[in-house]
Design a protein that fits this description.
With 168 residues, this protein is an alpha/beta fold. The protein has a single domain, classed as Rossmann fold (3-Layer(aba) Sandwich), CATH 3.40.50. A six-stranded parallel sheet has the order 1-6-5-2-3-4, sandwiched between helices. β2, α2 and β3 form a beta-alpha-beta unit. The longest helix is centred in the C-terminal third of the chain and has 22 residues. It is globular and about 35 Å long. 39% of the residues are buried.
Length: 168
């Protein structure tokens, strides 16, 4: 199997992803990363725009499902409960196992599933490994961890290629 680091589509934020378009393309399950995708690192409450987006996803027939690598005890569960969505923590992305567990739990196939995340080497690579549609968003905030700057610098060429490909 070829390794793919390119996202299928690129958006500035999750709120820019149109639930109706996702539904029209056959997506029924949207897996979402937590930190720097839905909220900045350490933020415990979903912003109103995320709550509104989740409501719009539900109205379009799409289940939002939190798929997080967070190892902070209780963080993914507590956040998911505030949005009333299913979740898996310690997902092990980019390995495909967490993706498959989520799809099995929700009764969806890879063709009916997408992942949205801010990281190429976990969210996008994992989604491509699992055969789902991959949606890349810009990280909400880089501040606070110098390692994030390095990681995003390494990811930059893949982000640029994915953006170019997404516009076609």
């Amino acid at each position: 199997m070829a390794i793919s680091l390119l996202a299928d589509h690129v958006y500035p934020t999750v709120s820019d992803i149109d639930p109706k378009q996702l539904a029209a393309s056959g997506i029924r399950l949207l897996l979402a990363d937590l930190d720097n995708t839905l909220v900045p690192y350490g933020v415990l409450e979903p912003a109103q725009c995320v709550k509104d987006w989740r409501r719009d996803l539900t109205a379009a027939g799409i289940t939002l499902f939190l798929l997080s690598n967070s190892r902070k005890p209780g963080r993914p569960e507590a956040f998911a409960q505030k949005l009333d969505i299913p979740w898996i923590g310690h997902a092990g992305k980019p390995k495909a196992g967490g993706f498959y567990r989520a799809m099995e739990r929700m009764g969806c196939t890879p063709e009916e599933t997408a992942i949205v995340g801010d990281q190429i080497f976990t969210d996008i690579l994992g989604g491509n490994n699992a055969g789902v549609t991959t949606l890349l968003v810009e990280p909400i905030r880089l501040a606070g961890n110098p390692g994030r700057y390095v990681r995003y610098a390494v990811e930059w060429p893949f982000r640029a290629l994915a953006k170019q490909r997404s516009k076609k």
